[in-house]
Amino acid sequence: MTTMNSCARSSMPPQAGWVSVGVKGLVVERACKVMIAALAAMLLLSACASQEIDQPVAQMTRAESAIQSAIQAGAREDAPMELQNAQTHFRQAREANADENYSQALQFAEKAQADADLAQAKARTAAAYETVAELEEGIQVLQQEIERGANF
User: Nearest Cα to 97, choosing from 50, 55, 62?
Assistant: First the structure.
C-alpha cells in the first residue's frame, strides 16, 4: 500500500515551485529545523563558554602590593580585621590561580585589594587622628606658655 501525499489527496494541483511532501516529510523537515536551531544554540553557548579568562597576574600583583602598603601604613595595629580579610582573600586567589580557576582568582584578588585599601585607609586615618591629638597638645602647651609670659 503506497502512502498518498497531502497534495495528491487534494483536488487542487500543487502550486508551481512547491514540492509535495507527505506527512512523514513534514515531520522530518520540522525535526531538521529543530536540530539546526539546537546546533546553532550549542555553537553560540560554546563560543561564549570558550572565552577563557587569562591568568590575573596584574590583579594579583596589585593586591599583594596593596597588602604591603597597608602593613606599612600600620594596618596590623589600626585595622587588623581588614588586613586579615585582605590576606585571606589573597590566599584564596593564589589557590584558585594554582587550580587554574582564573575567574575565581580574579574575584578573590579584587576582594583582597579592596580589603587592603580599606585597611590602609583606616590605618592612615588613625595616624592622622594621632597627629591631630599631638598638635592639639602642642597648641595647648604653647597657649600655657603665652599666658605665663603675659603674667610676668
Answer: 55
